[in-house]
Specification:
mainly beta; 15% helix; Hypothetical upf0131 protein ytfp; 5 strands; five-stranded antiparallel beta sheet; globular
Length: 131
Amino acid sequence: MVDLMHYATGATLYGYCRHALRDVMFPAIVPNPEGIVSGAVVVGLSDEEKEAIKRFEGGMYDRVEVDVEVELAIEEERGYVAMKTEILKAETYVWNYTSSLEIVPVEEREWTVRPLVREAFVGVGSGHGEE
């Protein structure tokens, strides 16, 4: 397994919205002209690693080429660092509505990463309340 943190940088995806899915911890990204998704872009994945992610997604998502906005630190003369915004081509997984799972409207409950991380690192039944 690749240590993704060494290959990731923050990114912003415009034209999509991230939603919770009913009764599961993972989210769905869906097209939305007004939407903005804050996340990360991972670079340097091999074809084998990309295929493993595709299998993990279980056919519920389509891999789509998108433009993402990233901020890069650029070292300038005299040791100063400046931030530069760039648009990069990337791929993301967009919900294809092929499963029976239901998207939860943001007004009802916005998706957060906390429950997913809690289960992955702390375990179910750890005594922490739901978020």
